[in-house]
Design a protein that fits this description.
Layout: H1 2-11, H2 15-44, H3 49-75, H4 91-114, H5 123-152, H6 156-173, H7 175-180, H8 190-221, H9 228-231, H10 253-261, H11 264-295, H12 301-329, H13 331-352, H14 357-360, H15 381-418, H16 426-456, H17 478-482, H18 487-494, H19 511-519, H20 524-528
Amino acid sequence: MGLGRLQAWMLGLPTAVVYGSLALFISILHNVFLLYYVDTFVSVYKINKAAFWVGETVFLLWNSLNDPLFGWLSDRQFLSSQPWSGARLSSRAVVLARVRALGWHGPLLALSFLAFWVPWAPAGLQFLLCLCLYDGFLTLVDLHHHALLADLALSAHDRTHLNFYCSLFSAAGSLSVFASYAFWNKEDFSSFRAFCVALATGSGLGFVGATRLLRRQVEAAGRGPECPALAEDGGLCGEELLMGCQDAGGITLGQYLRQLARHRNFLWFVGMDLVQVFHCHFNSNFFPLFLEHLLSDHISLSMGSFLLGVSYVAPHLNNLYFLPLCRRWGVYAVVRGLFLLKLGLSLLMLLAGPDRPGLLCLFIARYALPPSALHLPLSHPFILAPSLFTGSNRVFTEGTCKLLTLVVSDLVDEDLVLNHRKQAASALLFGMVALVTKPGQTFAPLLGTWLLCFYTGEGLGAGVGLLRLQGSNLPGTAADKLGPVRGREWQLAERGCAWAPPALPLPTRGGELSRQFFQSFNSPFIHSSFDECA
């Protein structure tokens, strides 16, 4: 009796809640992966440098190409007149196909995540295979999950409703990072391995349960005229068929690319999104550095780690405020307002000039002056205001990037109409957007590090100012300030080696933040720049 009530209650859940829960099962895995996979292979498995660079290089290429590849394999039948699809393919059939794909690929993503934390092959080979497998399944899950946003909902209001729950569950999934600190131990890896097994088990079972529930709700939409679970969210009630035009025959990849080249709104969007992705990842990669320069003399390491974790959760929570604004004013009006707000902050910095050390913190590339050089307390406006502005800059940028998936959904609809398709190729278009914007993700840490080196006049590592003490007003030598440090580690620090390797503790109070900051770079170029430190 109790089981029947539970099943009835779950079947009565809104589609938006079930769809959003999929973001939870992705987030609890991916945040832990990003934070620990480098440290695990370098510090625990002792991977050699050459194998690490080979793995990162192959991963960089694979990560750039798999989005359009999987999108094409998934949606190419929607671009042609395949016999099984015909001219009367219903939207429900497409949604069910994507839900079934998520039901398979989600548990496989959890298994590939689990493969990182158990040594089963030589470290170099395991690193390469695990990265490619995990990123491949993550791409498949992300593509189908984003495509469902366009396929489940037809109006901007309903899509915003779906995205709201995605942000809510993504924020909840980010809490796995806080829990991981209690289990992470390089010397005794068994507890962290058990924690990862629990995460993978929960994620895999969650994918199976959520996709089955979503499939039942979609199937029920065709059997009842009222179908309350889906009528509000996606308009999938009844047997409404997609309006395809003439039979266009098979479409090759070259023909599809030519169609995209004539899609002016798509071209304008990917150009803008490239800049946004660059800015978003620039903030993500360099935020720990900003945090260290602003507050390292005023907060403990544990508080710094807490603030670093909060900085990754806050954009999801802030998005919960942006999305209701989108329902009220429209997505484009909100995105335009965020752009204007960021522009206003930039103009404020420009008008303030270089003689305002506090406001210079707003200018990311010149963010090099520690608060100890200002001789000001933490509560002083010159310290507090830049902290808030810097956090606001990160939140506004992250918020804009998360809202842009709604714009891609509109581009999917426009592509359907302009090219007279029988079915919207949602996953393929999301994959093509990712292909064009991935360079922004890659070049953000490269250009940011170059800018820091250019403005400080120092080499890589030393130029970022992580371990420089010239601005400190503490008495005594560097060794006196930092306490007893083993000789090899201090020599590395003196030479500015912030990643050399992560197994060595950095002799600064913010060293752990600095190490995590450099580990967030997924480019072998960044790691190879520290050759002299090995």
